[in-house]
Write a structure and sequence with these properties.
alpha+beta; 9-stranded mixed beta sheet; 5-stranded antiparallel beta sheet
Length: 408
């Protein structure tokens, strides 16, 4: 038994029209009007597929398919929100392949031993509200719901997660985590070039890198660019540039197994003829090794302290995200490998460089991920693309793995 590839591809294209950007891109920010439209469509399709739909207090959507016997459902899914100027596969593939799995079972009149659960998590991307992986983070009991609901939007502090959930009609009543899962599978594009370059069909994801996000603000003094001598300047922009150089070189060391990125830099007053009085920048540190993560963060913080002291500046530091590396249970990764082999597909056991909902769900139930190739490794980009055959392969691996898990 295999999924209906044409139906899945048509559904992916249907959702890609909600927030369409450019030729094949999508911009569907969490809790936006576009997110509401996608959620409404998914809810209708869940009901049509015979699922009992639950919405929790953070807007996580869970559709339950009945089984032969009572028990915790085998869950699968991902997210429908995107980054700004994003792609049609990141997140949506996992949700819609899960829906196709349900529809395929319905077509073949198959009732599983254990219940099944299709999940759409809220705000995985975290581009307007912090933290990312928000819905799964709270569902797994790793964050306080009230704190998350009061989290303000980056672009409008008068709007919060709670107010935006209410405005789109997805402020449910169920407590996050109320439905316990037997296991959780997430199908996703790789978002990197490895599978495509090595011509491998499926990535069996063994672990997810830990992620540390920090925001820094270097404080100096604004002054005239033409009349202020260098030795009198308190140039926050120059200090931030030195710090950025250090961060970039840190990840390029031969022995380096840590990825460091300064993704955002904002100078104030942001004028061509004024020495900057402040520089705000972000730091993204990632590694599969928790000790290396901590070491990198500590070394970078020390360099910043030394730099601002020498330049007679001050700085402020705000921790945004601290997610430890996660290794998925061998039983779960093996189940994906076995499903892949049963379909005659090639596979590679590999880590994930990006954060995902499965990373959070691993604290709640046995979890794992399935990767399909990404053309040129491009993601978080309107040109994000995966071939139809790879989409079909990934959905069939998900189906085989879930069927086996739900019958045990």
């Amino acid at each position: 038994m295999k999924i209906n590839a044409q139906r899945l591809l048509e559904n992916l294209d249907r959702y890609a029209q909600i927030g369409k950007m450019g030729r094949i891109g999508v911009e569907r920010i969490a809790l936006s009007e576009e997110d509401k439209r996608a959620r409404d469509l998914l809810k209708a399709q869940m009901i049509d597929a015979g699922l009992q739909v639950h919405i929790d207090q953070l807007g996580n959507m869970i559709g339950i398919r009945k089984s032969k016997r009572e028990g915790n459902p085998v869950a699968f899914g991902s997210h429908l929100d995107t980054v700004y100027s994003g792609g049609r596969y990141d997140g949506a593939l996992g949700v819609l392949a899960g829906l196709e799995l349900i529809q395929t079972l319905n077509d073949n009149q198959i009732q599983t031993e254990k219940p099944l659960a299709l999940v759409n998590f809220t705000n995985e991307e975290g581009v307007r509200f912090a933290p990312d992986m928000m819905g799964s983070h709270v569902y797994a009991g790793m964050a306080d719901l009230s704190d998350i609901l009061s989290s303000p939007a980056y672009d409008n502090p008068n709007e919060t997660v709670g107010s935006c959930l209410k405005s789109i009609g997805y402020d449910g009543e169920m407590e996050p985590g109320a439905i316990q899962f037997d296991a959780f599978y997430e199908l996703h594009i790789e978002q990197g070039p490895v599978l495509k370059l090595e011509q491998i069909d499926i990535g069996v994801v063994e672990q997810v890198q830990g992620i540390y996000w920090t925001r820094y603000k270097v404080l100096g003094e604004a002054n005239h660019a033409g009349t202020t001598p260098v030795y009198y300047r308190k140039d926050a922009g120059f200090a931030a540039a030195k710090i950025q150089q250090f961060i970039g070189k840190y990840t390029r060391r031969k022995e380096g197994k840590v990825l460091t990125t300064v993704g955002s830099v904002k100078l104030s007053p942001d004028a061509i003829n004024i020495v900057p009085e402040s520089a705000v920048f972000t730091l993204d540190v990632r590694s599969t090794d928790e000790a290396l993560l901590r070491k990198a963060q500590k070394r970078i913080d020390k360099y910043i302290e030394e730099t601002v002291e020498v330049d007679e500046l001050n700085f402020e530091r705000e921790e945004l995200v601290r997610f430890s590396p996660v290794r998925f249970p061998l039983s779960m990764t093996d189940s994906v490998q076995i499903a892949t082999q049963s379909l005659g597909l090639t596979y590679k056991r590999m880590p994930s460089g990006a954060g995902h909902d499965a990373q959070m769900m691993a604290h709640f139930c046995p979890s794992t991920m399935i990767f399909i190739p990404s053309v040129r490794g491009i993601s978080h980009n309107v040109e994000e693309f995966s071939h139809d055959k790879d989409v079909e392969n990934g959905a069939n691996v998900l189906l085989a793995a879930v069927l086996k898990k739900s019958s045990s």
